[in-house]
Specification:
It is a single chain. The longest helix is centred in the N-terminal third of the chain and has 24 residues, at 12-35. By secondary structure, this protein is of the alpha+beta class. The protein is 42% helix and 17% strand. Helix 5 crosses helix 11 (345-365) and helix 6 (212-219) runs parallel beside helix 12 (375-388). Strands 2, 3, 4, 5, 6, 9, 15 and 16 form an eight-stranded antiparallel β-sheet that branches. Strands 19-20-21-22 form a four-stranded mixed β-sheet. The protein has a two-stranded antiparallel ribbon with strand order 1-13. The two termini are 52 Å apart. The chain contains 20 helices and 24 strands. It has three domains: 6-354, Creatine Kinase, Chain A, domain 2 (2-Layer Sandwich), CATH 3.30.590; 447-496, no CATH class; 506-638, CBS-domain (Roll). The model is unreliable at 246-254 (pLDDT under 50).
Length: 639
């Protein structure tokens, strides 16, 4: 999430001073480009590895500060949520065995992190979105307690003027309202950096945009969120909405989101991107004042351009331009932000190799990609890849329309091979990493399809929470073994070691496929619903879908017993017999609390609500199933 040395709650005078420094930084960068001060003799690559911490049940475990203190490693840092950490790799010179070295460095660090996590009865998982993540995990106390994160949350909420509304449609549909930016922590990425010469920046950045779709299609690894099957790379949809600062109170005004693919090709230099972002997006944070960058330039010293870097860290382009200083040399690089974490280290490096190879191969083949592809085509392709993965249809260079799989296998892998040869990557590594991409694409088994197909083969009699836990635990196991995802066998249902946590909260096992009636409906409809669906409780909603009552099997029998002998045949409205304002719970209510409520009030059903909206239901039948499993497990352990 960018720089930590920042200030929030900015008085107007300080904001004006910071914006002035920001404008000065842009002018200083222009001067550095004019004088040829930006490094062009070396090309470096880098990466940021984001990780999710999980407990024995493969659910998020919020111990990042404790784990980082135990590891005491300067390459490791916090992320937004207490169950995330990040590994920042030192830059590597591009060429030779750099890809193999990057893989080795990540694996070495993963071994150290896993050893440290084990002391807390925890592990780390490489995945774009953790399948076992629940909305309850995004409560405020799970935000890392550092000023930057609280400041970002406050700033974005103030700009929006209301909560974050998520609507994502895929195989299932997710519609939730969140009161915090913490939902962004659902996303876990493997961000790759590619240093570029300033005179080649425009075409290379445009190439990065053009190739985003096929690279993403081959790498998708995030098909699930809160148990819903959504996009093949749901991270794209989540990130677009989780830090969307557009004011919801004025829907008619056209305002650009802070997370975007961009609006047009770059014509000449990186300055265009910085200028556009400063023009469109308000300052969220300010950094401490530093030495005048022009004074640094006159002394031949590379300025840090701290104001520019701070503002840039709050604008989240999928391909982001970055200014930095390495070994006292200023440079420009392109940061690829759309690649997901995992499923294994070799999969991640293969994704990076495919990207590096296409960056070089396409830019060598086309001096100006703008002449052979429309920008809107590149953007449409990108979102198609996020939604459909390898099933997407792309319009490629020359307006050629092709399925993602065929385009990658027939055209782009050979081009990436040529690009990596041009970059002087070791031939054995080219074959190894691009071989992973080829096998993954040919088999169509990406991380996303592995998850979805594994879930589909699991018994539907198990709870969704159980199936997601089994999926995640198997994914963590296979990731540690290290074979690329296209070689993974599909996961089978097996309870996690600490499976009782599956039933800790009602949200983990409540029924969400609900049959409800309106309060004005006739009670005969309720009777038929109970018969057809073999249910004993029907929630009642008003016209605004707010829970207003409950009809139970017992209530219906009582009504019939009282009225049938009297010959009453007139249609009766549901509101006349329903239990108004029934006892309810929330997804965060613990199972023990729910049992107490049901016992004390002699109720056999608890509607589950968020606010006043019905989201699920738990009945005594669900509790009996849990009790049966606990008894069976206990007896087996004793024999």
């Amino acid at each position: 999430m960018g720089e930590h040395d920042i200030q929030m709650n900015i008085p107007p005078e300080e904001r004006r001073q910071f914006v002035q420094r920001l404008l000065t930084d842009v002018q200083a960068l222009e001067e550095m480009l004019r004088r040829g001060m930006i490094e062009s003799g070396f090309r470096r690559i880098g990466a940021e590895q984001e990780l999710i911490i999980v407990g024995p049940d493969c659910r998020p475990k919020s111990i990042n500060l404790e784990l980082l203190e135990r590891l005491n490693d300067p390459e490791l840092t916090t992320e937004l949520a207490r169950f995330n950490i990040e590994h920042n790799l030192a830059p590597l010179i591009l060429g030779g065995d750099c890809l193999r070295r990057m893989e080795s460095l990540i694996n070495e660090k993963l071994s150290l992190i896993r050893a440290g996590a084990a002391e807390f009865d925890a592990d780390v998982v490489l995945t774009g979105i953790l399948p076992t993540l629940e909305s309850a995990d995004l409560r405020p106390d799970n935000m890392t307690p550092l000023p930057r994160y609280a400041g970002l949350d406050d700033a974005l909420m103030a700009l929006r003027g209301g909560p974050f509304q998520f609507v994502i449609k895929g195989m299932d549909e997710l519609s939730v309202k969140m009161e915090t930016v913490l939902v962004e922590s659902c996303n876990t990425s493997f961000q790759v950096h590619f240093q570029v010469r300033p005179d080649r920046f425009a075409n290379l950045y445009n190439v990065a945009q053009a190739i985003s779709a096929p690279v993403l299609a081959a790498a998708v690894n995030s098909p699930l969120l809160f148990g819903r099957r959504l996009w093949k790379e749901t991270r794209i949809a989540v990130f677009h909405q989780s830090v969307d600062a557009r004011d919801q109170r004025d829907p008619h005004r056209e305002v650009a989101p802070r997370v975007s693919f961009g609006t047009r090709w770059v014509d000449e230099s990186a300055i265009e991107i910085y200028q556009e972002d400063i023009s469109r997006f308000r300052v969220l944070f300010v950094a401490e004042k530093e030495e005048d960058p022009f004074a640094c330039i006159e002394r031949g010293v590379a300025p840090k351009l701290k104001a520019l870097q701070t503002h840039n860290s709050t604008v989240y382009r999928w391909n982001r331009v970055c200014y930095g200083v390495t070994d006292d040399k200023p440079h420009l690089r392109i940061e690829n932000r759309y690649l997901p974490s995992g499923p294994t280290t070799i999969d991640e490096i293969a994704n990076a190799a495919f990207w590096f190879g296409l960056m070089a191969g396409v830019s060598e083949k086309y001096d100006d990609v703008r002449k052979v592809m429309d920008f809107d085509t590149a953007r449409t392709n990108f979102f198609g890849a996020a939604q459909q993965g390898l099933r997407a249809q792309f319009t490629w260079i020359g307006k050629k329309v092709a399925p993602a799989q065929r385009l990658i296998l027939d055209n782009l892998l050979p081009l990436a091979h040529e690009g990596l040869q041009y970059l002087k990557i070791d031939g054995r590594d080219i074959d190894r990493y691009l071989g992973v991409i080829e096998a993954r694409v040919a088999s169509k088994q990406t991380g996303a399809t592995w998850m979805l197909e594994s879930l589909a083969r699991m018994s539907p009699s198990a709870t969704r929470s159980d199936r997601l836990s089994a999926l995640t635990c198997r994914m963590a196991e296979l990731s540690r073994e290290g074979d690329p995802v296209h070689e993974w066998p599909l996961a089978k249902f097996q309870r996690a070691a600490d499976w009782t946590s599956t039933y800790a909260r009602l949200g983990q096992f409540m029924t969400t496929d609900l049959f409800t009636v309106n309060e004005e409906e006739v009670i005969d409809l309720v009777a038929n619903l109970m018969d057809w669906r073999r249910i004993r409780h029907v929630p009642v909603e008003d016209d605004e879908h707010r829970l207003v009552g409950l009809v139970s099997y017992r209530t219906l029998l009582r009504h019939m017993a009282r009225n049938l002998p009297r010959g009453i045949a007139e249609p009766v409205a549901v509101r006349d017999i329903m239990i108004p304002d029934p006892y309810t719970a929330t997804p965060d209510t613990t199972t023990l609390e729910a049992i107490t409520i049901m016992r004390e009030h002699s109720v056999a059903c608890l509607p589950i609500v968020e606010g006043d909206k019905l989201v699920g239901i738990v009945t005594e039948h669900d509790m009996l199933n849990i009790a049966a499993e606990l008894i069976e497990s206990s007896l087996k352990n004793k024999t």
